[in-house]
């Protein structure tokens, strides 16, 4: 039987076995192709090589598929290597980071241990007999505790406060100054330290250091003032300091112009007195000194006016304080002048608060306040002051207006109700009652018209004053004259814009 065979490596052979019956004849198929490729191969085999171009085309296509498959395999392997390398790099970075953190932790831990040992050594030097070492240790505490809150607490826990307070008993002024400023820095922003410093007895030791004023003692005095300022910020210390005799010392330091202390020390005195005045029990102690007249008489100094008014705002909250302010000669004109000459919102708000409380509580002094020009100043403040100052000025005007209405009512014997009551019909006195009521109402209207005229005049004067003030602020010529239009506006103004 004829045999047809392809020479291709992947050929399909159709073998006929001679000498066998047709029924026993069999075929063996060997294939490793897809369906389409298999059909093309059968065609080539049947054609017995007559279609070689198809075989070559299939061969080329097969080679292209194999090369493409190899390229895909290489790309996949390359990506896998990249992922593996990326993970390896990230893992290496993570391990390096952990090692660096551990190294930094060890370094930081070692540094903290060294710092703690240094603090222990410093506290130990505070207790030695050598005066030079103690002074150097106090100076070291002052520097270390200046800006580090943690060190302040650590030094206090190590026991630095008692030996520093004990150093105030030494005769050497430089050692005293070093100890005072070290205690001052230990108390900054640390209330437990402030309480501990006072508990050890530093108040009485500082007062013992106060000597007759002299240039050589001014540094010690300023250090004591600074400590009183820091310690008085704690509420639990206010009563202790107030009852210790520190207030007369502070007031004396403020009043004594011959005492050679810096301007900063004077500011510290005012701030310390303000802290102490918050406690109402300290106000009577302050009133025993000449503090109130001094504060009022020095209100013209812009550097201290607001702090002075802050103290007066605390003092006026007590009945004793209000009486003490009212008996000072010229107290009300001075306070009213503050509303007129200062443009500082803080000064205006505090001065108006003092006057508001005085006008509300001291009924007998309202006429004195009116005579001092409080109505004019309050009217101006309701127009030009800050929101808080305007509110307080309105309250002042309300109190003064109520007092005026009360005086008018009392001037008619308080019989408004009887005067205008309905007459009894059929009685002979009906006409008399009507006549009395008419007279009383006419007098009342006349009094009210006088009051309205006065208020209208106040408004006009206030508007004109404000115009002059605006002209001054605008740097216009001094001979500037308001226009006729402005004059007509001020002349036609009414009291409708007033807060009452």
Topology:
Blueprint: H1 35-47, H2 52-125, H3 131-144, H4 149-157, H5 161-166, H6 173-187, H7 191-200, H8 202-209, H9 218-232, H10 235-243, H11 246-255, H12 263-277, H13 283-287, H14 291-297, H15 302-315, H16 319-326, H17 331-341, H18 345-361, H19 366-371, H20 374-384, H21 387-411, H22 416-419, H23 430-473, H24 484-491
Keywords: Coiled coil, Repeat
Coiled coil: 102-129
Region (Disordered): 58-83
Written account of the structure:
The protein is 72% helix and 0% strand. By secondary structure, it is mainly alpha-helical. The protein has a domain at 96-200: Leucine-rich Repeat Variant (Alpha Horseshoe). It starts with 34 loop residues before the first helix and ends in a 9-residue tail after the last helix. The relative contact order is 0.03.
Helix count, per DSSP? 24
* Poorly predicted ranges: 1-33, 407-445, 485-500
Residue share in β-strands: under 5%
* Main beta-sheet annotation: none
Key terms:
single chain, 500 residues, mainly alpha, Leucine-rich Repeat Variant, 24 helices, 0% strand, disordered N terminus, Armadillo, U-box domain-containing protein 12-like, repeat
In a few lines, what is going on in this structure?
The protein is mostly helical. It has helices at residues 35-47, 52-125, 131-144, 149-157, 161-166, 173-187, 191-200, 202-209, 218-232, 235-243, 246-255, 263-277, 283-287, 291-297, 302-315, 319-326, 331-341, 345-361, 366-371, 374-384, 387-411, 416-419, 430-473, 484-491. The termini are far apart.
């Amino acid at each position: 039987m004829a045999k047809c065979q392809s020479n291709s490596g992947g050929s399909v052979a159709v073998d006929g076995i001679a000498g066998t019956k047709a029924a026993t004849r069999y075929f063996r198929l060997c294939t490793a192709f897809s369906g389409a490729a298999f059909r093309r191969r059968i065609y080539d085999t049947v054609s017995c090589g007559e279609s070689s171009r198809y075989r070559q085309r299939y061969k080329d296509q097969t080679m292209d598929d194999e090369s493409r498959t190899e390229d895909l395999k290489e790309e996949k392997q390359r990506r896998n290597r990249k992922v593996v390398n990326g993970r390896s790099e990230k893992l290496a970075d993570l391990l390096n980071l952990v090692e660096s953190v551990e190294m930094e932790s060890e370094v930081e831990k070692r540094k903290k241990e060294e710092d703690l040992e240094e603090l222990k050594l410093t506290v130990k030097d505070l207790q030695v007999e050598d005066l030079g070492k103690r002074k150097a240790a106090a100076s070291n505490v002052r520097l270390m505790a200046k800006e580090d809150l943690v060190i302040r607490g650590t030094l206090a826990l190590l026991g630095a406060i008692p030996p520093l307070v004990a150093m105030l008993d030494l005769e050497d002024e430089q050692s005293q100054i070093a100890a005072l400023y070290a205690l001052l820095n230990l108390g900054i922003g640390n209330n437990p330290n402030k309480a501990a410093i006072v508990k050890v007895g530093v108040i009485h030791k500082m007062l013992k250091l106060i000597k007759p004023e002299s240039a050589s003692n001014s540094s010690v005095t300023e250090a004591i003032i600074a400590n009183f300022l820091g310690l008085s910020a704690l509420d639990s210390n206010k009563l202790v300091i107030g009852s210790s005799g520190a207030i007369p010392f502070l007031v004396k330091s403020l009043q004594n112009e011959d005492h050679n202390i810096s301007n900063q020390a004077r500011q510290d005195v005012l701030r310390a007195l303000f802290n102490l005045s918050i406690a109402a029990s300290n106000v009577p102690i302050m009133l025993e000194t000449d503090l109130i007249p001094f504060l009022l008489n020095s209100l013209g100094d812009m550097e201290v006016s607001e702090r002075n008014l802050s103290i007066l705002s605390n003092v006026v909250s007590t009945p004793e304080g209000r009486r003490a302010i009212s008996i000072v000669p010229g107290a009300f004109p001075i306070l009213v002048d503050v509303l007129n000459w200062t443009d500082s919102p803080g000064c205006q708000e505090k001065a108006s608060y003092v006057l508001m409380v005085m006008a509300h509580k001291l009924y007998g002094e309202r006429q004195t306040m009116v005579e001092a020009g409080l109505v004019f100043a309050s009217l101006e403040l309701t127009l030009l002051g800050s929101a808080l100052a305007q509110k307080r000025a309105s309250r002042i005007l309300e109190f003064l207006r109520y007092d005026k209405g009360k005086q008018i009512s009392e001037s008619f014997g308080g019989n408004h109700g009887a005067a205008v009551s309905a007459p009894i019909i059929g009685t002979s006195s009906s006409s008399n009652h009507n006549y009395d009521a008419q007279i009383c109402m006419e007098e009342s209207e006349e009094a009210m018209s006088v009051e309205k005229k006065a208020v209208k005049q106040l408004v006009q004067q206030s508007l004109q004053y404000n115009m002059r003030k605006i002209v001054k602020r605008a740097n216009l010529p001094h001979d500037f004259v308001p226009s006729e239009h402005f004059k007509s506006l001020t002349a036609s103004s009414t009291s409708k814009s007033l807060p009452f």
